[in-house]
Amino acid sequence: MTLFDYSHILTDTVDKLSDNNSYRGLFHQHKDGEPLPSGKALEEIIDLSRAILFPGYFGKSNINSQNINYHIGVNLERLFELLTEQIQAGLCFGVENNGMETKDEPCRDTAARLASELIRRLPEIRSILATDVEAAYYGDPAATCFGEIICCYPIIRAITNYRIAHELYTLNVPLIPRIITEMAHSETGIDIHPGATIGHHFTIDHGTGVVIGATCIIGNNVKLYQGVTLGAKSFPMDENGNPIKGIPRHPILEDDVVVYSNATILGRITIGKGATIGGNIWVTESVPAGARIVQRK
Q1: How many CA within 13 A on the CB side of residue 272?
Q2: Mind listing the GO biological process terms from this record (predicted)?
């Protein structure tokens, strides 16, 4: 009995997959010493950040007021090391994929400066996250304490990732902010683009299925429910038929807005201060302050 010779199939497939017409736009050519950012390292960065921002709730459970300085110091040193390494990888990726030609190639000094700037902002990030915890607690009658909010509520994990990613985004670090928010998207079902601007005392009840676009501006004391989309309408095209990027195309929600479950708000419109948007409706025009928009009976 003669066995079928599969070698020609393998060889032919290798040749087809190695053809540059096959992988155009799908291939990242590595250079020595310039790896892509590591998903595993970024997961550790988020774990360390959560342990620093919420000591005792994330990370080591034996932390107390006597050893907190030591634990935070150790975690910050490791965080700085990992951030520097990953930011450098992100900067290298950005130079290559944006077709930039510059004499100032990404270097470890630049990455270390950006990493230290993010770390300098951590106390401010913690302060605003404390308001998000308050908003989740006072906005949910089922919540029993702040600890339950921090441990259990998906919004805290998602908003923590977002607030870290947003700071990296404002520092013009490529790729990494989006990876960090997509990690939270996978973990919680909450999709927040790092370019969005979100004020203090922000919360999402339940959370699953929420989408917040890149150019959204969300004020203070805003509450969303599950399934809310803050999205864009059709994209304007240039003369070549390509979508025009970088223009404001997502909603503005002013202070004290509440948006109920599965509402869809599209386009660069403004939802005025104190407005309420009911569930399961589409909104494509601006809403005045204090208005209440619900389905018709």
Answers
A1: 9
A2: amino acid biosynthetic process
Task: Please name the amino acid found at residue 100.
Answer: M
What is the pTM assigned to this prediction?
Answer: 0.89
Structure tokens at 236: 């304007």
> Residue 69's pLDDT band (boundaries 50, 70, 90)?
very high
**What is the three-state SS of 155-186?**
HHHHHHHHHHHHHHHHCCCCCHHHHHHHHHHH
Question: What local confidence, expressed as pLDDT, does residue 100 receive?
Answer: 47
Q: What are the helix (H) ranges across 58-196?
A: 68-97, 108-120, 122-138, 146-152, 154-170, 176-188
CA distance 237 to 243: 4
Alpha-carbon distance 226 to 263, whole Å? 9
C-alpha span between 285 and 289 (Å, rounded): 13
Q: Yes or no: say if 219 and 256 are a contact pair by the CB < 8 Å rule.
A: yes
What does the alpha-carbon distance between residue 160 and residue 132 come to, in Å, rounded to a whole number? 9
Give DSSP secondary structure letters for 228-256: -EEE--SPPB-TTSPBPPSS--S-EE-TT
**Domains of the chain: residue spans and CATH:** 37-189 (1.10.3130.10), 209-297 (2.160.10.10)
Would residue 241 be called left, alpha or beta, if left means φ above 0 and alpha means ψ between -120 and 50 degrees? left
Residue 233, number of CB atoms within 10 A of its CB: 12
Pick from 152, 280, 162: nearest CA to 205: 152
Rg (CA), the chain: 23
